[in-house]
């Protein structure tokens, strides 16, 4: 397991193998029933751990910086 702190949030990455209830997990995730909130990624599409926290950092960026970025973007 890898753990990262991003903007005051904790990102935990765990690799599970031989998962047999993926359909149930997907339905629970989409319904917002899982606590804590989770996301599922296809590990075969991720070349290294590094891009995951980078993507999370971009997704969790503060709203104010998004306003500035969008205002200044052409």
User: What is the strand arrangement across the widest sheet?
Assistant: 1-2
Q: What distance separates the N and C termini?
A: 40 Å
Structural class: alpha+beta
| Contiguous uncertain segments of 5+ residues | none
Give the domain tally: 1
Output mean pLDDT: 85
Molecular structure report:
Its main location: nucleus. With 74 residues, this protein is α+β, with helices and mostly antiparallel strands. The chain has one domain (2-72). Helix content is 38%, strand content 14%. A two-stranded antiparallel ribbon has the order 1-2. The termini are far apart. The model has no long low-confidence stretch (mean pLDDT 85).
Name some characteristics of this structure.
two-stranded antiparallel ribbon; 74 residues; extended; single chain; EKC/KEOPS complex subunit Tprkb; nucleus
């Amino acid at each position: 397991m890898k753990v990262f702190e991003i903007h005051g949030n904790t990102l935990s990455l765990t690799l599970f193998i031989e998962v047999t209830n993926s359909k149930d997990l997907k339905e629970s995730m989409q319904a917002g029933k899982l606590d804590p909130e989770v996301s599922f990624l296809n590990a075969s599409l991720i070349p290294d751990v590094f891009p995951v926290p980078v993507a999370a950092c971009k997704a969790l960026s503060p709203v104010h910086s998004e306003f500035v970025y969008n205002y200044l973007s052409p």
